[in-house]
Design goal:
The protein is mainly alpha-helical and 84 residues long. Strands 1-2 form a two-stranded antiparallel ribbon. It is built from five helices and two strands; from the N terminus they run E-E-H-H-H-H-H. A hairpin with a 2-residue loop joins strand 1 (2-3) and strand 2.
Length: 84
């Protein structure tokens, strides 16, 4: 649902997003050279993060970063970036 151009998730969580969002945007912002998360489907973001966590998707850094997030935090981050 959009209100004045903002999604309901963005309004509820604010511009800063859920805990941990700022650490993601450092590498995943537009023009940063790594895939942009904003606007991607939440299910895709969450699935990729879980693949990093399990080792199904090779990584140099993301596998360690995602272990710091609970499953609920992963879902909240995914929903926020999808709604952004």
């Amino acid at each position: 649902m959009r209100i004045l151009g903002l999604t309901l998730a963005a309004l509820l969580l604010g511009a800063a997003g859920p805990p941990g969002a700022a650490s993601c945007t450092g590498c995943h912002a537009a023009g940063a050279g790594i895939g942009v998360l904003q606007g991607r489907p939440a299910d895709d973001i969450a699935a990729q993060m879980e693949a990093f966590r399990s080792g199904a998707r090779p990584a140099t850094l993301m596998n360690r970063i995602v272990r710091g997030f609970s499953p609920d935090e992963v879902r909240a981050l995914a929903a926020w970036f999808a709604a952004s």
